[in-house]
Write a structure and sequence with these properties.
7-stranded mixed β-sheet; alpha+beta; PH-domain like; 161 residues; 4 helices
Length: 161
C-alpha cells in the first residue's frame, strides 16, 4: 500500500518574482561592497590615497553608509513572500514560513508602482514577523487570485485604506 500524501490546499503566489532579488541579492551585494570600501578607508594609510582617507571624506562617507544600511534594513529587507488561499495566507521571509488567517488583518495599505504594488497587511496583534506584513505584489498575480476567490476579495476590499 502506498503512503498517503496529506492534502495541501492550493495556494496562489501573489508576491512578485522581484521579491527575492530585492530582499536577498541587492542587500547582499550592497553590504559586501560598501562595507569593504568603508573598512578600506580606515585601514589604508593616508599616504596611499590622500583624498579618500582624509577625515573630511571618510567620516561623512561612514555616516552615509550607516544611513543607507539602516534604510535598506528597514525597507527592502523587510519584504516577505506571500501566497494566498481561500481561508488563510502563507508568509515567508525565505527562512521561516507562517500560516496566517485573514481575520487577523486590521487593515491593508496599497502603494502602486507600475505593474507592482507594495502591500502592507497591518495585523491586529504582533506575531513572529511583527505587527505588519509588507510584500511586493504583482498586480497580475493579485488579480488572478482575486478573480478565482471573490469571497476573499470582498473581505480584503473592506480592509483597504
Amino acid at each position: 500500500m502506498k503512503p498517503q500524501i496529506p492534502h495541501r490546499p492550493m495556494t496562489h503566489r501573489v508576491s512578485s518574482n522581484f521579491t527575492l532579488f530585492f530582499k536577498l541579492f541587492i542587500p547582499t551585494v550592497w553590504i559586501v561592497f560598501f562595507t569593504s570600501f568603508t573598512l578600506s578607508l580606515f585601514i589604508i594609510s593616508e599616504q596611499s590615497l590622500p583624498f579618500l582617507t582624509a577625515p573630511v571624506f571618510k567620516y561623512p562617507f561612514l555616516l552615509a553608509f550607516l544611513f543607507f544600511l539602516g534604510l535598506i534594513y528597514f525597507t527592502i529587507m523587510q519584504l516577505k513572500r506571500v501566497e494566498m488561499a481561500g481561508d488563510f495566507y502563507i508568509v515567508s521571509n525565505y527562512f521561516k514560513t507562517l500560516k496566517l488567517y485573514y481575520q487577523d488583518i486590521q487593515y491593508i495599505k496599497i502603494i502602486s508602482i507600475g505593474r507592482l504594488q507594495i502591500m502592507t497587511f497591518k495585523l491586529k496583534g504582533k506575531g513572529s514577523f511583527g505587527d505588519k506584513i509588507v510584500f511586493l505584489a504583482s498586480k497580475q498575480l493579485w488579480n488572478i487570485f482575486c478573480n478565482s476567490h471573490p469571497e476573499v476579495k470582498s473581505t480584503l476590499d473592506q480592509l483597504i485604506k
